Amino acid sequence: MFFTLAPKKALAGCVINKGLSATVYQVSFKEKKMSSDRINIFYELEIKDGKADELREIAKQMVAFNDEGEPETLVYDVYISEDEKLLTFWETHANSDALLFHADRFATGQFVGEVLERTERTRLCLYGNITAEIRKWALDNGFENEYHESIDGFQRV
Q: Which of 38, 39, 82, 88 has a 20 to 30 Å separation from 132 between CA atoms?
């Protein structure tokens, strides 16, 4: 009898028969060097008391809106903490232009007021090679950001 440990995704390639032996199929991942153009966003907001359920619904609408209208927003995930005190957006944009397009849609769109009236204190972190244009946009729109320069990395797709 033997066991093979593998990531959950790879387990889909395992077949275990009744004789307690296993056939493991190789699962390949495409690895790419981290793109120097991509920008990741971590946006965390404190939720006002009693507003978590409303924000859940707004977040679902935002995800659908961005999925349909922003092809260069590569990742757009929204999370809520177990204690319902923090709302977190995790985003990946293909490049600076994609981030600026998204940022303008948010700042001038229907959701900004809905989110901000149900939250307070925020933390906005940008990861990657952030252009002067993005920094100016953030200052012009009242954001105080944390900037994190890219060192190196990879991604599996």
A: 88
Q: Phi first, then psi: what are they for 38, rounded to 5°?
A: -65, 145
Q: What does the pLDDT look like over 9-24, one tens digit per residue?
A: 443 444 444 454 444 4
Phi–psi pair at 156, nearest 5 degrees: -110, 130
User: Domain 37-149, what fold?
Assistant: Alpha-Beta Plaits (3.30.70)
Count H helices and E strands in the chain, helices first. Answer: 5, 9
Domain chopping of the chain, boundaries: 37-149
C-alpha span between 13 and 15 (Å, rounded): 7
| Residue 13 DSSP class | T
Tell me if 77 sits within 8 A of 41, measured CB to CB: no
What would the pLDDT profile of 130-152 be if each residue is shown by its tens digit? 999 999 999 888 888 999 998 98
